[in-house]
Amino acid sequence: MKTDAERSVLFVNRVHPPAPGATGELLQQLAATLAASGWRVTVVAARPAGVTARGETRDGVRFEWVGGLPFTRASHARRALSYLSLYPALLGRLWRVPRHGTVVMLTDPPLQFVLGLLVRPFKRCRLVHWAQDVYPEVAEELGVIRQGGVLAGLLRGVANFALRRFDRVIAVGACMKQRLVARGLAAEKITVIPNWADPREVRPVARGANAFLQEQGMTERFVVMYSGNFGLAHQFEPILDAAELLAAGAPRVAFLLVGDGPRAAWIQGEVARRNLENVRVLPPTPRARLAESLGAADVHLVSMRAELCGLVVPSKVYGVLAAG
Fold this sequence. Notes:
4-stranded parallel beta sheet, 11 helices, 35% helix, 19% strand, globular
């Protein structure tokens, strides 16, 4: 029989509901499931807006909230400052929480898993990195830092030094595992565990019973949908080009772009500039209505810049599949 320490796990990630973010939603589902299975589960995360407590317990999961500068996408510099303010706060809380047998560190904020090396000597824990993105390569490809520059090389060296000392690395796709192996990590240390969709939340909804489709006035349209993060890693120019080409020749085709993110303002500006009446930009769908929203589409689009293949994995595919 496992001891209490062996059946205990601590997760570290910047976001967790009620704060928005796909990694936080996945973590919420996993943490609650483990807690319901008898594990002692703790999550250390940045304090969401509206939460004042330093810690609380919900659904059997203990939450330890840490403070930092407000997260913003207004500029790369301000975003970096918000990340930098979190590292000491996360480390301080990790030192103070009770010992857990396993510490699972995600990718947000970038390279936070390096903190694990400073925690293990005191906590005698097993270290696991759950890689949702691969840094600093993502920052290089997005032009945040110079590709192949001194800073990129330094960050890559630090990341490799830390990950070689982790007990296990979880990659969310085979292409991501290839990227990590190419960087010098041992293949046998990396396990591929894809992300998922919760079938209790996302399930097929019959078109005739889809209230979301009716509310949008799309019951007689052929709906092409992009649903998810309007992020820097995703391509939207081809989607809008296609909508522009189809506007006159195929008026029955409608594009629904559902989500939010750093490119939202650009997308809305392009839709207005091109006068694309066949494109509708909608805010993120509440989780309670996600099945209806995803089920409203005849075709879903997944868009990613080719150079980021394996550095990020489009987890929106799993929701699309769950919606049927």
